[in-house]
Structure formats: structure tokens, C-alpha cells
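We emphasize that the prediction below concerns an isolated chain of 240 residues; any contacts that depend on oligomerization or on bound cofactors are therefore not represented. The input was used exactly as deposited, without trimming of termini.
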Amino acid sequence: MQSIVSSHHLCFAPPPPVLRHRLICHSLPSIRLPSHRSTTSLRLFSCAAVSRESEMAAKEDGQDPRIPKIASSIRVIPDFPKPGVMFQDITTLLLDTEAFKDTIDIFVERYKGKGISVVAGVEARGFIFGPPIALAIGAKFVPMRKPKKLPGKVISEEYSLEYGTDKIEMHVGAVEPGERAIIIDDLIATGGTLAAAIRLLERVGVKIVECACVIELPELKGREKLGEAPLFILVTSDAA
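Result of the prediction step, given as a C-alpha cell string:
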């Protein structure tokens, strides 16, 4: 997952708050998390209260009623892992068994029966969501890792960072030409890592059906780097 730097700071009193969410209309079933730059003062709500109110709004907008629960289980941690970073923390989603199951179920419902034989997970949090999706749809899981993490022969693809470059790697022979794949990660920010994963798979003849993330930071325009590959997301966040 990519770190996002901002010149703005937000202080929360412990315990970390559950932020109120507002629904937006998308062609995808997503909802938007509030911006830390909003001039509106934040009010604290219990998860249950947020979920009930958001579910009603979701039904009115024709959206999946499970998504507000998913969104309300994700928290934003300011100044982590360094000052200015607004960290999208999905560990609280993983602690909520209902929200975690709903997240996996939504992806499974979307991709089951679509002839997908490869679920490629981007290090590191793509390894959390990818394997259960792969098992449920009858596909193999292919880890896409940082350099020198995979034993044996690998194929790699370089991508640009703010300062310098990095690589993403995959085992040689993990996929076959003509296979249909989805690429899974927890979040898309600038889109550099996902774009590299797309290029790497396409180099060996794999068809990219779609990229799928739990969270998108639309202000960073990461989807513009994905070329013709579609992007499916559940939650959008202004915390960038």
C-alpha cells in the first residue's frame, strides 16, 4: 500500500474515532470517506449508528447496503508512519468479521463464473484479500512481491516512485499466456504499483479482466495510469 503525504494534520482523541460517511453516486458501488480537510467539524458516532443511517442512504441510492458497514470499519490514522501521512488502516476492517466477510463476498460475487483463473495479489495487503477470493472463485493466487522476496526465477517490472524507482516481481511460470486475471490490492493511490502489475502480467500474455481495490484516493488520479484496465473499488476517500 502506498503512503500518502499531506501538509494538513488532524488530531484525534483516543480511542480512534469511527468517522461518519456520506454516500456518493458512482457507476461502481462505492461510498466516500470524509476528508480531513473538511471545514465541517467531525462528530463521533457508534459503528452501529453509522451503519444503520448509511445503509438506508445506500438503499435509496441503489447501492449495495453492505458497503456502508465496510466503510465505517476503516479508520484513517494521521501522521503515520511519519508526519503528514494520512494512513488508511484496514486492520480495523479485518477485526470486524461481518465487514471482512462482506468485502470478500462482494468481490467473489463479481468475479465468480467469469472464467478467471488468476488472482494476482499485490504486496502486502493484496495478500490479505486475494487468497480467499481466489479459493472462492476456483482460481490460483499469484503473489506479486517486492524485489528479492520470491525464491527461484522471477520476472520483474520497474515503476517510478516520487524519488527513484522500485520493482514488482512474479515467479516465472506462475501464469500461462491466455489466462484471465484480476489484480487485487487494498488501496489505489498514485496507481504506480497496479500499473506495473498490469504490465508484468500482460508481458507474459495474460488478459487483465479488472483491477480491484477496497479503497481509492481519487484526488491522486491513480486510475489514469491503468490504461484500458477497468478498476473496481468499494470506498473512495478524500484523505489524501
